[in-house]
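Researcher: We're teaching a course module on how sequence relates to structure. For the next exercise, students receive a sequence and then see the predicted structure as tokens, so they can try to spot secondary structure elements on their own. Here is the exercise chain.
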Amino acid sequence: MPITVVRLPLSIDRLWRRAVGTFEIGDPRPIALDAPYTFFLPTDEELAAIQPGDEVKIIIRSIPPARKWDAERMWVDVREASGDILTGALDNHPSDIPQLSVGHLLQFPRSAVIDILWDRNRTDAPPPGRTEREFWERCMVDDCVLRGRSPVDYIYREEPDMAEPEDKYPDSGWRIRGTGEGIAEDEATDRSPQYVAIAAVLNRDDSWLHLIDSPEGARFERDAQSGEFIACEA
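Model: And here is the predicted structure for the students to work with:
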């Protein structure tokens, strides 16, 4: 069975992507940098603790790009761990990467791992390393803010009224507006406000994070001169 090897030049720090035959194993760190509130990686301690018997999830992209999926996140059963390099057998049936199949052996750096399932027989696995608060509650936000075409310009929190009984996460009551120019562009191009996780908004603009626990009825507008949010009346 073929073994796919990814070797990284030591000079590469922030980004590596190495094409391997007809697919590539992606580096998740740039994704985490771009989406810090929705894409979480294992800690350095967790990555260093991976050993044979554990399962890890990595990102694999087809070359050329697959017709349906840009990439697939798949589990690998770790067979060997030598320094920074892990060797394992693919433990998923790829949906749209026909050149891969269950059992295909892969080698990749620990930094490629996006999730870990510890061997159930391990007694020395490190505890979860992340302690950051997560923001999955929902909000309404102008499309121009969500797509990065406008900063957050005006926010207010009202009584939540958007949630459905089957929703996993509640409506926070936050309503987030962009600048007048951004809203005008949304209206001209028929782009509607979106009901999404607060975390998705914070990925674009977290300058209002310090206000996130403000009570219902709170309203803030960004000062054009200072850039700070100022409490205002309805």
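Model: If you want an answer key for the exercise: Residues 56 and 116 are 5 Å apart (CA to CA). Residues 1-21 have pLDDT under 50 and may be disordered.
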